[in-house]
Design a protein that fits this description.
A five-stranded mixed β-sheet has the order 1-3-2-4-5, with helices on both faces. The chain is built from 15 helices and five strands. The protein is an alpha/beta fold. Strand 4 and strand 5 (102-108) form a beta hairpin. It folds into three domains: 16-123, Glutaredoxin (3-Layer(aba) Sandwich), CATH 3.40.30.10; 130-214, Serine Threonine Protein Phosphatase 5, Tetratricopeptide repeat (Alpha Horseshoe); 217-303, Serine Threonine Protein Phosphatase 5, Tetratricopeptide repeat, CATH 1.25.40. Helix 12 packs antiparallel against helix 13 (251-265). It has helices at 27-33, 50-65, 81-86, 113-123, 130-143, 147-160, 165-177, 181-189, 193-196, 199-214, 221-230, 235-247, 251-265, 272-284, 289-303, and strands at 19-21, 40-45, 71-76, 94-99, 102-108. It comes from Roseospirillum parvum.
Length: 304
């Protein structure tokens, strides 16, 4: 299966009216009446308001991720001063939430995205963000070796939220796992600078580098194991064996070999085993249970 990063995925996009502009004339229809169907969040803003430029896009992004469970209406107070006065808007950004025709919650000023998500979860009676749930399902599928299923889920998330960095990184990881290394390299090279510095994307780059380094190395596993059986202190053979095991999709066994090398002689070759182990940690991701266990063992070795 070829996974293609393409906004024209067959997954159905969210409704186009999840986020819209409104004014005094249409406020009752767009907010009061609409809030009888789903909760409506109203963002009161103005072009001259600096914090509004930060809050607005984050709020819109989160609303879209709730996939129809909540809607957002944007009102420019400069163009709708009577409405702002009626609702006693004294400072912006100001966000009001309407449900069943009346205001039920709100906040003033810019909030971090995590608090915006919590605000929307309260408004939707604790309903979780469906995009987060989909990402969890994709991660579980990937860790279970169901690479194509994971890739399909990541593609669906990106069809709904093209700017979702975890979904993009997850999709690229699937392509690495499927051996589509040239496609991943091309996709990474085409990303804007603000994305290449994201930790998730850096991890994909590391995973790609490791995949290229270890491509075809699995065939050497038996010979390297024989060398180690003859000389357990052969650190180069152990390092090469770790690369071969990783190339054979045996990441846990690869980390085991690197940890053993560190246990025997942590500073061998300027700490080559530790450097390689850290690359594996980054490539697999900090939440991977194999990484969590190996990182705990590494700490014990280094600080015991």
């Amino acid at each position: 299966m070829a996974l293609i990063i393409d906004s024209d995925s067959s997954a159905a996009p969210p409704p186009a009216d999840l986020v819209k502009d409104s004014d005094t004339e249409h406020f009752r229809i767009d907010v009061i009446d609409a809030s009888h169907e789903v909760p409506v969040v109203v963002d009161f803003w103005a072009p001259w308001c600096g914090p509004c430029k930060t809050l607005g896009p984050m709020l819109e992004r989160q609303v879209r991720q709730f996939a129809g469970a909540v809607r957002m209406v944007k009102v420019n107070i400069d163009d709708n001063q009577a409405l702002a006065a009626q609702l006693q808007i004294q400072s912006i950004p100001a966000v009001f939430a309407f449900k069943d025709g009346r205001p039920v919650d709100g906040f003033m000023g810019a909030l971090p995205e995590s608090q915006i998500k919590s605000f929307l979860e309260r408004l939707t009676d604790g309903a979780g963000n469906p995009v987060d749930a989909a990402l969890d399902a994709a991660r579980e599928a990937f860790e279970a070796g169901q690479i194509e299923q994971a890739g399909a889920i990541y593609q669906q998330v990106m069809a709904q939220d093209p700017a979702n960095v975890p979904a993009l990184a997850g999709l690229l990881r699937c392509q690495v796992a499927l051996g589509q290394l040239d496609e991943v390299a091309q996709a990474l090279d085409g990303l804007p600078a603000e994305l290449t510095n994201k930790s998730e994307i850096r991890a994909v780059r590391t995973a790609l580098d490791l995949a290229r380094e270890t491509a075809g190395a699995g065939a050497d596993t038996a010979a390297l194991e024989a060398r180690l059986a003859a000389d357990p202190a052969d650190h180069q053979a152990r390092l090469d064996l770790a690369a071969a095991l990783y190339g054979a999709n045996r990441a846990e066994a690869a980390m085991e070999q690197l940890l053993e090398s560190i246990r025997r002689e942590r500073d061998w070759n300027d700490g080559a085993a530790r450097a390689q182990l850290l690359k594996l940690f980054e490539a697999l991701g900090p939440t991977d249970p194999r990484v969590v266990a190996a990182r705990r063992r590494l700490s014990s070795l280094l600080f015991s």
